[in-house]
Amino acid sequence: MDVQKYLARIGCSGPCPPTLDTLRYVHLNHVLTVPFENLTIHTGGRVRLELPLLYEKIVSMRRGGFCFENNGLFSWLLSKLGFDVTILSAQVRNRFTGVYGPPFDHFLMMVKLDGHRWLCDVGFGSGFQLPLSLETDSAQVQSHGVYRLRSQGNFIFMEMNSDTEPEGSYCWRELYKFTLEPRERDDFKPMCDYHQTSASSLFFCKSLCSLILPSGRITIMGRKLIVTSLPTKDEQYTTKTTEDLSDEEITEILREKFGIVLQSPLTPKDVEIVPPPPIY
Prior knowledge:
By secondary structure, this protein is α+β, with helices and mostly antiparallel strands.
């Protein structure tokens, strides 16, 4: 890995010692510059998890990826910067079916720094922007939402506030659950294959490309452009607009808004997901 080239890809400059400030800096810049996308699957290609291939795709070709790619490469960067990184496995709650996926459904990581544990995740479409503290179950407020890590039995649930009541209380929505058991990169290869071939996978059923913006989020799903805007000081709630796109408009927006130029034709896809058997 050319660390400096990777840092330049995500807009980071200057010395990056293994400190909390650096961890927050590179985490935020990564989610603001590297799209969450699965377009390889829908251009006739296959996602592979070898680190040199991930580096070539995301850094050299300026593409994005889904969790196995973005977090797989980002965990390597953190290790190269001198951080103590532990790879973790999570099960995602499908927002369309409400069902949790199987183990190794999601790749994320824990960083231990000065006796404190931090959850890092730059590969989840509607995830947090800055590392979350694993030392508290209290609400953690960030620019794009309010998050918490709630322990229950053997699992820790990552939850996001889905609405704000006038009194300021929170309505929590579960996004995924995980344990702190250390995992290896190769553990995720079967699930990476599953997500490219299963009718129960979001990534097989829907082509998507999404990026966090300072003002909200921009997403292409199938042939639809979805723009989410954070509330201004005079507004209380997030707003969302949806627009149908032609093939030419998709290509143009991918280039202008996401910096992505595909090497093969994209076949936009947005079909119903077949719910898998419940997993507890």
